[in-house]
């Protein structure tokens, strides 16, 4: 059970500004197919160029809902220039804190706001002042090098695990962790404390017993923590040759994006750490 503050629980149970705006001035949509987090934020400006109305719709956990709700309260009455300065740290502070593994929800709120502001400028035929392009580093979650550098700088992150907590980069197949480490070192220099598990060397030939052991170890160490961070879980049911039978539990069992989780997280990790010949099949109760 996550240790949420009273403010988080209040915003979760009684979220403010949920819904849609007819003919909005700006709309921002962000999210991750791999775990199902998704957020749409939209706003309407008044005659003085201040945010008069703001609404959101989110698919996610309590932290995602609470972060979105409190963000809409914060930016009402602001100009776009003022709203653009709101950071995920401001959102977390307003909520009285978030668990480390849920910090990405505050970042998602900040990114949705930035996307909505960028959309406003695009509609006007211009470019948002803070708009930056970048190269995708984490293909599982679509996170760019620009986003990683930003979250490292704004939150003073020094580890790959910290980056994963804040923006989920590295939380899928893990193939991008080396690059994330390089980006941390670029931003933090000597402050960086980059430790990540290097790609395992897969034995050329596995006995059945050893294959079963490696599959179980990979699920426990490489897959389960990622799913549990979002209220889900996975259970290894059986192994038939190269077919691995699993069942999703918790939030993952109800997630509409489970097939992406299967492909981008479960199958990718098992192929990386055990054998390229493995394929995964979900068993639904």
Explain this structure.
This protein is an alpha+beta fold and 285 residues long. The protein folds into three domains: 6-123, Sufe protein. Chain: A (Alpha-Beta Complex), CATH 3.90.1010.10; 136-191, BFD-like [2Fe-2S]-binding domain (Arc Repressor Mutant, subunit A, Orthogonal Bundle), CATH 1.10.10; 208-282, Fe-S cluster assembly (FSCA) (GMP Synthetase, Chain A, domain 3, 2-Layer Sandwich), CATH 3.30.300. The chain has eleven helices and eight strands. It has helices at residues 6-13, 62-75, 80-83, 88-95, 103-123, 145-155, 160-167, 177-188, 208-228, 251-254, 258-273; strands at 26-31, 38-45, 51-59, 136-138, 143-144, 232-240, 243-250, 279-282. Strands 1-2-3 form a three-stranded antiparallel beta sheet. Mean pLDDT is 85; it is low at 196-200.
In short:
The protein has 285 residues and is α+β, with helices and mostly antiparallel strands. It has eleven helices and eight strands. The protein folds into three domains: 6-123, Sufe protein. Chain: A; 136-191, BFD-like [2Fe-2S]-binding domain (Arc Repressor Mutant, subunit A, Orthogonal Bundle), CATH 1.10.10; 208-282, Fe-S cluster assembly (FSCA) (GMP Synthetase, Chain A, domain 3).
